[in-house]
Amino acid sequence: MDKITSLVEARKQFATQEQCERHLRDMRWPDGVTCPRCGSKAVTYMESRHQWQCECRYQFSVTSATVFHKTHIDLPRWLMAVWLVCHSPKGISSAQLQRELGVTYKTAWYMTTRIRRAIKNANFGVKLDGILEADTTMVPAAQGKKKPTWGNAGHDVLGIVSRDAAAIRMEIVQQLSQREIMRVFAKHVGTVKRIFTDEAPAFYQLYTIAPHETIKHAERYALGRIHVNHVENAWSLFKRGLHGVYHFVSAKYLQDYLDEFAFRGSHRGEREAMVNLVLACC
Ligand SMILES: [Zn+2]
Questions:
Q1: What is the C-alpha separation between 251 and 58, in angstroms, rounded?
Q2: Residue 39 CB: number of other CB atoms within 10 A?
Q3: Ligand 1 center to residue 38 CA distance, Å?
Q4: pLDDT digits (tens, 9 = 90+) for 15-66
């Protein structure tokens, strides 16, 4: 399949159910269609049913055991939705997806929720290695009808970037304590060469993982290679998306949005692969 670099091209390539089935088939079984039950390649395609029958008598389709299976939403809409999520740096709201795909708001919301779940699965198998930057930010709490009060002003979020892999993770921390910072590091980092942060006390124990150097933000933003600019850029993109696209994100879903942005941030140099990575996890 040709590279799909524009919205026009995506609409062309994902125009029909058959094209989308072919795309998913080639992605799922690059070495030929294989029975998901017994692993045999002795399968026969049944044209009229869009299904294969295996020599073990099992019948399956390209969407078997995926979120696309037996939904009322057709494949062209599903694949376009995944494409749009991956190609919108600040994200895409359910309302916007509703307009782009000509579906109801409820359907669009269901699709974005399922795609975000697939992203969660696609994202976090790999640990962050090499030279890392870490920084925290405050994401204001979604206020709804209640006024913000002391204590629910927002959520602290820790961001960690691997400069070598240009990969990022963002995670809510319960409080800005050394223990919480160490917990999130243990979850996301592998072999670390060096860590750069600002001088916040919560980062004090990072020296136990790797050499730790700090930048004094009151004085300057960078001293040679000591800076956290990559994380700062990720914060700024996330906050613009949060205010400009989503408007309102409740505490319940905040981590899902952080994962979505971290996923796009980690794969921004390879959007084509990003789409297939999400499709493979749907
Ligand atoms: Zn079989």
A1: 43
A2: 9
A3: 4
A4: 999 999 999 999 999 999 999 999 999 999 999 988 999 999 999 999 988 8
pTM above 0.85, yes or no: yes
Q: What digits encode the pLDDT tens for the residues 65-114?
A: 888 888 889 999 999 999 999 999 899 999 999 999 999 999 999 999 99
Contact yes or no for 74/17 (Cβ under 8 A): yes
Per-residue tokens: 273 = 């692969």
Q: Where are the domains of the chain?
A: 128-249
Q: How far is the CA of 56 from the centre of ligand 1 (A)?
A: 4
When pLDDT is averaged across residues 132-148 and rounded to a whole number, the result is: 76
pLDDT of 236-261, one tens digit each? 999 998 888 887 788 888 999 999 99
Higher pLDDT, 249 or 186: 186
Token digits of residue 276: 């297939």
* pLDDT attached to residue 144: 54
Residues in the chain: 282
CA-based radius of gyration for the chain: 22
* CA–CA distance, 252 with 254 (Å, rounded to integer): 6
In this structure, which residues have their CB less than 5 angstroms from ion ligand 1?
35, 37-38, 40, 54, 56, 58
Q: Into which CATH architecture does domain 128-249 fall? A: 2-Layer Sandwich (3.30)
**Cα(279) to centroid(ligand 1), Å:** 23
Decide: helix, strand or coil at residue 242.
helix
Residue 86 and residue 97: Cα distance in Å, rounded?
13
d(CA 271, CA 12): 17
The rounded distance, in Å, linking the Cα atoms of 188 and 232 is: 19
Contact 194, 210 (CB under 8 A): yes
Nearest alpha carbon to residue 257 among 279, 242, 271, 270: 242
